[in-house]
Amino acid sequence: MTQPAKIIKTEEEWQQLLTPEQFAVARKHHTEAPFSGEFYLNKDTGMYVCSACENPLFSSDDKFDSGSGWPSFVKPVEGSVETTIDDRLGMTRTEVHCARCGAHLGHVFPDGPRDQGGLRYCINSISLGMKKENNIEVEE
Q1: H or E stretch including 131?
Q2: Cβ(3)–Cβ(99) below 8 Å
Q3: d(Cα 80, Cα 6) in Å, to the nearest integer?
Q4: In this predicted model, what pLDDT tens digit does every residue of 69-90 receive, in sequence order?
Q5: DSSP per residue over 29-87, as a string?
Q6: What pLDDT is attached to residue 87?
Q7: Which of these, 79, 13, 84, lies nearest to 52 by C-alpha position?
Q8: In what order do the strands lie in the sheet with 128-132?
Q9: Residue spans per domain, the chain
Q10: Which of 69, 74, 115, 138 is least surrounded, with the fewest CB atoms within 10 Å of its CB?
Q11: CATH of domain 33-132
Q12: pLDDT tens, 10-65?
C-alpha cells in the first residue's frame, strides 16, 4: 500500500483545523480521560482514520476490548504509523504518531493478545475518525 505524501503545517495552521481538544491531543501530546472517548466501545466495522488528516490507521477487524478505557488495536495498517520514545512522565513508553501528519495518537504496549502478536495500540478516540465499511472506497 502506497502511503500519501507527508503533510506539514505550522502549529497555527493545525490550531485552525482542529478543535481545541483535538489540538491538545494531536499536537500537544495530551491524553483524553479513560472511558470517555467516542470510539472506546464502538463496534462498527470499517477503517479508523487520523482525525487530523484522514490517513487510514486501524481496521475495525484489529480492534479489541483491552479494558483500558481507550480504543485498543493489535496492529495498525502497514506504514500508517510511526513511533518514538516518550519519557515525559518519568517512565519510558513508545508513542504512536500518524505517519502522514505526525499527529499524536497514543502509545503501544507489549501487553496485547499473545495470539495476535502481543501488542496493544492504545489510541485516543479524539485522534480518530471512522469510515464505516459501507462508506470505504476500494481501490481497483
Answers
A1: strand 128-132
A2: yes
A3: 11
A4: 999 999 999 999 999 998 887 8
A5: ---PPTT-STTSS----EEEEETTT--EEEEGGGEE--SSSS-EES-PPTTSEEEEEE-
A6: 86
A7: 13
A8: 56-59, 46-50, 128-132
A9: 33-132
A10: 138
A11: 2.170.150.20
A12: 999 999 999 999 999 999 999 999 999 999 999 999 999 999 999 999 999 999 99
Amino acid in the structure at residue 46? G
Name residue, grid cell 479494558: 67
- Is 122 considered catalytic here? yes
Q: How far apart are CA 121 and CA 94, in angstroms?
A: 10
How confident is the model at residue 140, as a pLDDT? Answer: 39
The answer to whether 52 and 22 are in contact (CB under 8 A) is: yes
Whether pLDDT at 120 is above 50: yes
Is the per-residue pLDDT at 138 higher than 60? no
